[in-house]
Amino acid sequence: METETAKDIENDTTLQAATIAAQNDLFRKALIDPVAAFEMQTKGIQGQVLVTPGVSGEGAEFQAAALAAVATDTRFTEDNDPYGDHTFGTVMVSGQKLFWKIDLYDTDFTYGSERPFDPAVTRRVLTIMCPSEY
C-alpha cells in the first residue's frame, strides 16, 4: 500500500499539493505549538524562519504576534492559493498587513527542491514581511 501511495504522488500534482499544504501547515503551526513542533520533527520536516527588517524593526512583541498570526492563518482561497499548497498568506498584526511566504529548497538551501513533497530532500524557508518589502 505504501508503495502505491509513493507511486501515486510521483504523478499526481493534486496529491503533491495537498501533501505540501499539510506539511506547510504543520511547519507554521509548530511556530507556537510544541506538540506540532514534535510532530514536525518526527515527520522529518525541516526549515527556518526569516523576518524582514520591516517586521523586526517593529520590536519583539510585534514579531511574536506576527508569528502567532502566521501560525494560525487558515484563510486560503483560489485567489491567494491557486496551487493549493499553502505557500503564501496575508495576515493583519496590530492593524498592519503582513505577507508570509514559504519557499521549498533543496537540503543545501541553494536551489528549489526537485521533490518538494518529500521532507527528506526539502527544506522550508518561511519569510514574514511587510508588503513594501515583497
The profile of the biggest β sheet is:
4 strands, mixed
Strand order of the largest sheet: 1-4-3-2
Mean pLDDT: 95
Q: How would you classify the helix and strand content by structural class?
A: alpha+beta
Number of strands: 4
Written as H for each helix and E for each strand, in order along the chain, the element string is HHHEHHEEE
Unreliable segments (pLDDT under 50, ≥5 consecutive)?
none
The proportion of strand residues reads 15-25%
How many angstroms separate the termini? 43 Å
Q: Give the overall silhouette.
A: globular
Number of helices: 5
Helix content: 25-40%
Describe this structure in words.
The chain is of the alpha+beta class and 134 residues long. The chain is 39% helix and 22% strand. The chain has helices at 2-11, 13-29, 34-42, 53-56, 60-71; strands at residues 46-51, 88-93, 96-105, 123-129. The protein has a 4-stranded mixed sheet with strand order 1-4-3-2. Strand 2 and strand 3 form a beta hairpin. Helix 1 (2-11) packs across helix 2 and helix 2 (13-29) packs across helix 3. The protein is globular, with a radius of gyration of 15 Å. The N and C termini lie far apart (43 Å).
Task: Briefly say what this structure is.
The chain is an alpha+beta fold and 134 residues long. The chain has helices at 2-11, 13-29, 34-42, 53-56, 60-71, and strands at 46-51, 88-93, 96-105, 123-129.
Properties at a glance:
134 residues; alpha+beta; four-stranded mixed beta sheet; 5 helices; 4 strands; 22% strand; globular
